[in-house]
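Researcher: Structure prediction, please.
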Amino acid sequence: MQTARLTMAQALVRYLAAQFTEIDGQEVPLIAGGFAIFGHGNVTCLSEPLQAAGTVFPTWRGQNEQSMALAAVAYAKAMRRRRFMFAVSSIGPGATNMVTAAGVAHANRLPVLLLSGDTFAHRLPDPVLQQVEHFGNPSITVNDAFRAVTRYWDRITRPSQILASLPQALAVLLDPAECGPAFLALPQDVQSEAYDYPVKFFERQVRAMRRPHPDPAEIRHAAAAIQAAKRPLLIAGGGVHYSQAEAALAAFAERHRIPVAETIAGRAALPHAHVCNVGSLGGLGAASANAMASEADLLIAVGTRLQDFSTGSWALFENPDLRIVTVNAARFDATKHMALPVVADARIALDVLDEALEGFVAPEAWAKLAESRYAAWNAATEARVRAGNDTPVTYAQTVGAVNRAARPGDTVLTAAGGLPGELNMNWRAPALGGVDIEFGYSCMGYEIAGGWGAKLANPDHEVFVMVGDGSYLLMNSDILSTVMTGHKLIIVVCDNGGFAVIDRLQRASGNASFNNLLSDCRRVRDVKVDFAAHARAMGAHGERVESIADLDAALTRARAVDRTSVIAIDVDAYGWTPNEAWWEVGVPEVSGRAEVLAAAAQWQQGRAKQRRGV
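Model: Predicted structure follows.
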């Protein structure tokens, strides 16, 4: 057997660079490179083969381990899981910085490969720099923290172990059911050790995510339930995008006249003006979709885990006879909520279900009701997103300005705080896809880093990042990354003076405003951050605008600029788009505030509507 003597780090990089996939008839690298911050735990060994790989397997320098891994997560989402990236950290704080990003990937079922340095396997120098010692278990390092937020976890303690571990890690990253982050801990000494690897291990391989077909019995049961329904509602989740099932979804809905509501991850699964579209669903959703959901006697949930914001904490569906059909590649998600499961790829399952439902059409009155409710919602949206010079500016108006500036193929991206709801409710998709609202893990700081990853995936289109002042202050250093690397973003900073959406929840639960808005926190002086000047200090174009008319003009200028642009605008901390869907949070049963007790009573009314046994 022919062998090649390589260090473990060299073999790892050579193997990863040999993996390919096919997209639109062309073979491209499966792993589109990655991000790295080097430290003593990886710079001496892992940097050497990464540097040698050059542009064939490019490595981008990050500013923060968390943000570079978030960029990798956003890249995988933009690529619909067909390609992904890696993120490399040293040991200690560099590694633990990536734990949050692993949680984002895990919650959203997205592939990212995380590689962290580790303490010495032979332990002779212990304790080493940045080592956290566990007195009763010396085998534990901080890298064990990744076990809770990864789909695949391994510590490589012998160079030969990557022969078994790397193929298994890739299998998880490409599995439609188990897809999520894979993590490898790489002890410093083992990275440097040489081994005679089989040359065959490094042969070019072409891989793809499989499309599991549905079981005929599950199709029969699901079809029977749908045919018996008088008020069916289809819920389109992120799995529709990952399966590239948008066309199949549209054809299925049109043929059977079934209204379609979208989850946050499923936004833009249908064109905004599609005849079956009834808007986004749930606690951050459209009144039209929520009204249909409250009356539906059957849900067809495609590619969604039915998170609590989509279901109104399971109080949204008020029909006592409601049945649920789930279509999901993951058995775990498909068998939730007392559902009739169809465990399969979304695109294939919709096509097979379509054939099984030959001749079935939902009642005309139900379809007309959906159309009228959606028309009323769109009229209200049109009024909310208006342009003009009126103040104070609302979130909905800023969304409207970005919507007017966006073109088919562009991406709009946000996460956490109040912007996910405002974007989810008020965005009118100019084309399929192009919406990334990170609300699976609701991660502050995803916005700018995620924008970088989205731009890497779609370099020929604009990426609009909408971020609040709180998230901007939490993580903004990748503005520098995008300027340095030429991955231009258009960033709109909505400054509401703090964490205004949590202040809204605080007040809604009867509590007094406290420690969320800058005006309500302990301080010795007031500070108004100049976000435009801060962005200019990192090499970006930056400007501040006062009105929506000014924002419209600034967005036009930003399209013409050759680098990242940051546009700051003050928004009304209290001017939210209304949503009546209930969402469960804990409200004190005992309090000295009458407002808290009143809120607790209201929350009890919501709990009484919750679907049981989910």
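Model: The longest strand covers residues 31-36.
Researcher: Thanks, that helps.
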